[in-house]
Amino acid sequence: SETDGRARFDELIAADSRVEPRDWMPDDYRRTLIRQMSQHAHSEIIGMQPEANWITRAPSLKRKAILMAKVQDEAGHGLYLYSATETLGVTRDELTEQLLSGRAKYSSIFNYPTLSWADIGAIGWLVDGAAICNQVPLCRCSYAPYGRAMVRICKEESFHQRQGFEILLTLMRGTPEQQRMAQDAVDRWYWPSLMMFGPPDGDSPNSARSMAWKIKRFSNDDLRQRFVAMLVPQAEALGVTLPDPDLRWNEERQAYDLGPIDWSELQEVIAGRGVCNAQRLQRRREAHEDGRWVREAAAAYAEKQRAARAS
Ligand code: FAQ
């Protein structure tokens, strides 16, 4: 009965146990997971575009092979997350339709342009770095298929972050012009990477409930703090400056003070008015159309197999 289901669900959450797809769960819990997991999946898929922009222009064969592998990893994460989302009773077709129609959200970060090769380093270091900070706690998400997906995805993201750091390190050991390129990329990607963690806690309508359900384990601001604390020594090792003159350690709070974040920029990008929003969606629609024959061929093949088994 629903009463038994709810009692068991509450027990699982209280005991830090895992909810599996066939377990009873509240409708709102299911809806929240579909929302977050599908947004996450869409982000991985749209997130292929900014970096794919540099595959043909990577500065060496080795860099090109590494970048291609990384972009393919993002595709894998997206597919893995769509499958995990389907365990909640939504179809892949519905999720795809939501993305292509522009109704679904995906991470703000992928609506910024990649202007130079150094941006590929900055994305690996900052964007994948932020993704790791956000996703390591999600490995303990109360919904088991999401948590399991995150374990595997985080391993790959760690490698991605190292490769981004290494690109920037190579540039910083290069000519003054290469150093300027690296600093310029960090200047442009730093603030948007802080926005990836979402609005400040006071303006985050979903956080309290998601934390009570143990989907999210830390608040948006707490994760942003962890991220900055991770970046500071790495920026020092690289020799780049984080573009925040107000950034300093606060001994009393045992945390970093940050300069003001332009939250109107995040709102604008989420509302679809970022530099690349239109282009990203247009490209995704084209790619989906280009793949139509593959979907049709796969469906025809599956039908033939089914008919053969039935006869
Ligand atoms: N962009 O109440 P909250 C990657 C929306 S990493 C766009 O705080 P919540 C790896 C939010 O959805 C990127 N929208 O919401 C990679 C909500 O709207 P809704 C993907 C944002 O869910 C690297 C509203 O604002 N990672 O892909 C953003 O509790 C390199 C209110 O916000 C994930 O998705 C934003 N930045 O917390 C790939 C991680 N921030 O749905 C390729 C999983 C907030 O009510 C290359 N997701 N919104 O209409 C999460 O952890 C959470 O969903 C948050 C937001 C933290 C993003």
From TrEMBL:
Enzyme Commission number(s) from the entry: 1.14.13.149
UniProt keyword list: Oxidoreductase
GO biological process, one term: phenylacetate catabolic process
GO CC aspect terms: cytosol
GO terms for MF: phenylacetyl-CoA 1,2-epoxidase activity
Keyword Oxidoreductase appears in the UniProt entry: yes
Protein's name in the database: Ring-1,2-phenylacetyl-CoA epoxidase subunit PaaA
Keyword Oxidoreductase: yes
One Pfam entry name: PaaA_PaaC
UniProt enzyme class: oxidoreductase
